[in-house]
């Protein structure tokens, strides 16, 4: 009998029954007040008059009217460059111990995002909340005695002046509580290996030593790790070496595009739980079964605002017009795309992380990620967001019984006319013209603006298929493998030409 597991499960069940939470709207009001109070004597707080905002009758409205929107470049050029140089009390009291490096999905140059002690503590508390939410899932007691494979970036953080730098997954893993270290795999020694291929190879060689019950990481890199373990140990599925694997905690991107290929590596279904951990903080996690939506973390160090995701409010570079309307949690509507804006205990203020979300349940504050502001293709009025693109691709998968885990797209001009050129990652051998035709039809069905564009200036769709590994190699060439690295879904013509040349150069 799994005695320890029964005790842990009982403790989680008890905590879930005892802990009461404020409503999401009330929690957000308290978070905003706490953020303003703590940062009122920083340079940022003095500049924007946080003391005055705190005295306002409607704090949220006065905050939104007073403080500008900031993307990374604006935040860094005006404020964070002084944090990078070691000055204190700039946008948050004191100075951070860490900077999260994030090239995101749009460039080679890493962003350096402050990670304060308060943010690390907030991430830790949200992690505990997520563990508590396991009480809502039908998991047996022995699951809570198994080990967890966390496949993130290297925990061997770089020292730069007085700070340590790395991806947020590496920073989080390097701050794992002592009581969790016995469960955490691949362990501190392997996690410090900087080279991703070497780290995965070592995991494959040591895999037989562990009793893994849960996996955690970005789907594309998790798939590659499992394939390496299966190949190295001459297995049929990952369950042949980890028979007690029952849970996969996804994160960073939607899991649905990877579901078919992921499941082929399993002997039986496992519970998939979505999370939303970004370089800027732990934003949301799936709290209950029966949904793919995630609950916003409304009571732990992050205040959220929402800008309607419409072309007139979003600039070409993905930033937001300063006069764009903004809503707080009490004002949002279900099934509407919003640009996510956040203020946090790392000293990010009205900060655009570049993601768009939609609420599936406003009362529960449950969301899905619908795309990126920079991955919004509106050439000739097509108004294609990532979720519309992926909806169409799921239809292709179903119709042709294929897997399409990766893609990228650009609007290209040929002979004076615009076309959408798609690159689809697949091992299937289907005529590209057939894929183009079905994809075009699916997009017209999913998006009325696209249908209108196809009847006017958008002349057609072209599909090129390449192996999914092409996308992984592109990321390796331009950024690096593993960790938080994700593929850009929409490219401009210049970047797309680089992509085409690269894709052609590595094809057999």
UniProtKB/TrEMBL annotation:
This is GH3 auxin-responsive promoter. Residues 297-362 form the GH3 middle domain. One of its GO terms (molecular function) is acid-amino acid ligase activity. InterPro entries: GH3, GH3_C, GH3_M. It comes from Marixanthomonas spongiae. The lineage of its organism: Bacteria, Pseudomonadati, Bacteroidota, Flavobacteriia, Flavobacteriales. PANTHER family: GH3 DOMAIN-CONTAINING PROTEIN. Residues 389-494 form the GH3 C-terminal domain. Pfam families: GH3, GH3_C, GH3_M. One of its GO terms (cellular component) is cytoplasm.
């Amino acid at each position: 009998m799994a005695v320890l597991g029964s005790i842990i499960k009982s403790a989680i069940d008890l905590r879930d029954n005892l802990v009461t939470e404020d409503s999401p709207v009330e929690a957000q009001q308290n978070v905003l007040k706490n953020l303003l109070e703590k940062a009122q004597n920083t340079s940022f707080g003095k500049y924007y008059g946080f003391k005055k905002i705190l005295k306002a009758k409607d704090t949220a409205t006065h905050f939104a009217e007073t403080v500008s929107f900031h993307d990374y470049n604006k935040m860094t050029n005006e404020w964070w460059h002084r944090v990078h140089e070691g000055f204190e009390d700039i946008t948050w009291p004191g100075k951070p111990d860490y900077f999260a490096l994030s090239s995101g999905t749009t460039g080679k140059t890493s962003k350096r995002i402050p990670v304060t002690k308060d943010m690390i503590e907030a991430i830790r508390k949200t992690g505990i909340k997520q563990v508590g939410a396991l009480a809502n899932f039908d998991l047996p007691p022995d699951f809570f005695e198994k080990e967890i494979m966390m496949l993130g970036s290297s925990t061997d953080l770089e020292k730069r002046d007085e700070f340590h730098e790395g991806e947020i997954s590496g920073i989080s893993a390097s701050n794992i509580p002592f009581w969790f270290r016995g469960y955490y795999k691949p362990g501190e020694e392997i996690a410090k290996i900087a080279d991703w291929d070497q780290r995965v190879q070592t995991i494959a060689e040591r895999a037989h030593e562990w009793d893994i019950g849960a996996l955690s990481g970005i789907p594309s890199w998790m798939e590659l790790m499992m394939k390496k373990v299966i190949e190295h140990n001459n297995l049929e599925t990952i369950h042949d070496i980890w028979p007690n694997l029952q849970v996969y905690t996804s994160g960073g991107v939607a899991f649905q595009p990877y579901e078919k290929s992921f499941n082929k590596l399993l002997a039986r279904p496992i519970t998939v739980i979505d999370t939303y951990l970004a370089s800027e903080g732990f934003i949301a996690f799936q709290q209950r079964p029966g949904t793919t939506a995630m609950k916003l973390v409304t009571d732990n160090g992050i205040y959220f605002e929402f800008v309607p995701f419409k072309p007139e409010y979003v600039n070409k570079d993905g930033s937001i017009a300063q006069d764009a309307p903004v809503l707080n949690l009490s004002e949002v509507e279900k099934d509407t795309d919003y640009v996510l804006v956040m203020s946090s205990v790392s000293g990010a203020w009205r900060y655009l992380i570049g993601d768009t979300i939609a609420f599936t349940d406003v009362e529960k504050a449950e969301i899905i990620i619908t795309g990126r502001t920079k991955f919004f293709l509106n050439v000739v009025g097509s108004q294609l967001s990532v979720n519309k693109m992926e909806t169409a691709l799921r239809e292709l998968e179903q119709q042709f019984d294929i897997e399409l885990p990766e893609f990228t797209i650009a609007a290209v001009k040929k002979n004076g006319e615009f076309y959408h050129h798609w690159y689809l990652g697949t091992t299937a051998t289907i005529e590209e013209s057939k894929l183009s035709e079905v994809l075009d039809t699916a997009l017209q069905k999913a998006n009325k603006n696209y249908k209108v564009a196809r009847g006017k200036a958008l002349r057609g769709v072209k599909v090129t298929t390449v192996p999914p590994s092409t996308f992984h190699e592109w990321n390796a060439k331009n950024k690096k493998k593993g960790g938080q690295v994700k593929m850009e879904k929409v490219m401009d013509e210049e970047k797309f030409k680089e992509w085409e040349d690269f894709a052609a150069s590595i094809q057999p």
